[in-house]
Amino acid sequence: MSVEAAPAVGLQLTRGERTTQRYGTIVVVGGGCYGSYYVQQLERASAANALRYERLLVVDRDPDCRVAMTNAKNTDEGIPPQSQYGPQTLINKHRTPAPSIVVSDWTSFFDLYFAESAAALEASESDAIVPSPLMPHLMYEWLVRSARARWPGRAIATRPLHGAFPVPWQRADPSGTHYVSFAEWICPVNCIEPRLCPETRGPRTWSMPSAIQAYLEFERQNERPLAGQAIFHCRHRAYGVGMFDTADVLAADALVKSVAASASADILVGTVSHCHGALSLLSIGERA
Asked: Where are the domains of the chain?
């Protein structure tokens, strides 16, 4: 069984020939260097009518993070968050909600966020998450916590991947997360992974979800089939901002619950883009 991130589930609005993505809540992980850039780009995308959102949450444990300080500066100067971007005719068509700062560590935030989202599935269908390039494997960590809360008497652990993954660069860290990349060079943080790679100047012939399928097939051929996979594919949706949907994470939790309901199970969990990824193997033991 598998769960893979679907293309943007945000409602599509059409204005003439322009299609506007519509989201409910967008969560930006971190309010520092990367988060502030993503907020800026989301506001620009909104001003240009490329996407709309009802609420923009920025989660950072620092109440004085860069996004918070920018918010405070704009408020002091009486500047609406979107007023510095785009032609005035676009700005007046709809108001871009200012980002709300959630002062919290990511673990506590996502425990509450996913609990609320699971309790209101229909309302959260159009919600999305903007990950940080340097964050821990947060979605996997939440799935582990959810599994432990669901089955307190079962052994739940992170196992190393079997063998090498079919990419040029990979490394396992002490937490058990297996980092993988098609790049043997340093990529620009704001790369949108276009069809033509800006480093090689040739076609991007690779995609991490395809490599994952090749790995899973190799495991099956070697009689090590996994019970399931939950892959969160961070796709670049507008103005260089990548996201995956909240619904994908909830579906992954439902997958874990299903495949491990009556027997032990190993599930591959990944947060990936086309070029890079973090993979973890969730192992759930037999029922006591």
From this structure: 2-284
Whole-prediction pTM value?
Answer: 0.87
Euclidean distance between CA atoms 104 and 59, whole angstroms: 6
Long-range contacts at 96-99 (CB < 8 A, ≥ 24 apart): 96/43, 96/46, 96/47, 97/53, 97/54, 97/55, 97/56, 98/56, 98/71, 98/74, 99/28, 99/39, 99/56, 99/57, 99/58, 99/67, 99/71
Residues 29, 101: Cα–Cα separation, whole Å:
11
- Summarised one tens digit per residue, pLDDT across range 8-66 is 555 554 444 468 999 999 999 999 999 999 999 999 999 999 999 999 999 999 999 99
Query: Residue 3 pLDDT > 80, yes or no?
Result: no
- DSSP sequence for 72-117: HHHHHTT--TTTTSS-HHHHTTSPPPPPEEEES-HHHHHHHHHHHH
| pLDDT surpassing 90 at residue 134 | no
Place of tokens 């032990």: 264
